[in-house]
Structure formats: structure tokens, C-alpha cells
Amino acid sequence: MSDRTHSSEPRRIFIDKQSPKAFHALVQVSETVRATASEAGLDRTTVELINLRVSQLNGCAYCLDTHTRAALRAGESPRRLGVLSAWRDTDLFTPPERAALALAEATTDPVDAAAGTSAFEAAREVLSEDQISAAIWVAVTINAFNRVSVMSKHPVRPPHDE
Q1: pTM of the full predicted structure?
Q2: 19, 55, 94, 147: least CB-packed within 10 angstroms?
Q3: Axis crossing angle, helix 129-152 with helix 95-108, rounded to the nearest 10
Q4: Using CA of residue 125, residue 127, residue 132, residue 138, what is the dihedral sign?
Q5: How many Å apart are CA 12 and CA 8, to the nearest integer?
Q6: What one-character-per-residue DSSP string does the chain give?
């Protein structure tokens, strides 16, 4: 029996496995962006907050799982991760983090030109141009990975110890 017999949705192709050269290129972009962010002075927790917020907006369970673990390893607190989707409604995030999150949201949903303009104006008050550029590149990159994982339906598997 085929997978199609048991499910109303056809089996997906893991596009990262189907086209490994393209995926490897995306991984190389990600490594370059991570280095760019570090050189610009964006700390690892801010990068992971961007990754998580964009993944929340895109509904990417695989990336949410991956970057939650990465954020915790980088020293992020469970409390802040728990309220990240409502970051505007709490004082738990610093002005630079808030600026980076606003840029990430504007990058993820670029249709709202007013939000993009507002995000840039706010970011210019607390981030350097290198940091603004790096934050946007982090958002662009995680958006691409979200598309790969969502379209491939990458599973979130339980840890080995569960």
C-alpha cells in the first residue's frame, strides 16, 4: 500500500535531500550570515530570538524546535522564550532586541510598508547600520529555511531520552 492510501495528504519530498547542492548553498549563506551578525555585534541570543520569532510567524515547527534548543544553549531564558510571541507587551527585551525583532517581522511580512519604515526608524536609534543589515540577513535566511522545512514537512522527533 502506498502512503497516499493512508493519508489525505501526499507524501512530501524533503527538498534539502532531493536537491543537496541547493541546500548546501543555503547552509553556506547561513554560516556567512551568522559570521556577519557576530562581526556586527549582534550576540547569539539576539540571532536566535530573530530565528524563533520568524519561525513563529511562519509556523515552522521544525525550526522552532531547532532554534529553541539553540537559544537555550546560548543562554536564553525559558521565561523570555515563553513570551517571545508577545515581545511588544513585555519589558523583558532590550531596546536593541526589540529593534531586531521588529526588523525580523517586517522582513517576514514586507507587504506592510508602514511597519517596515517604523522598524527601520526604531532600529536606527539603537543599532548600527551593520547590525540592522545583519538582523535583516538573519531574518531573510531563517525565512528561507522555514520554507524548506514547511514545504518538506520536516518532522519534530522526540529526544532520544523520552
Answers
A1: 0.91
A2: 94
A3: 50
A4: negative
A5: 12
A6: --HHHH-SSPPPP-HHHHSHHHHHHHHHHHHHHHHHHHHHT--HHHHHHHHHHHHHHHT-HHHHHHHHHHHHHTT--HHHHHTGGGGGG-S-S-HHHHHHHHHHHHHHSTT-HHHHHHHHHHHHHHS-HHHHHHHHHHHHHHHHHHHHHHHHT---PPPTT-
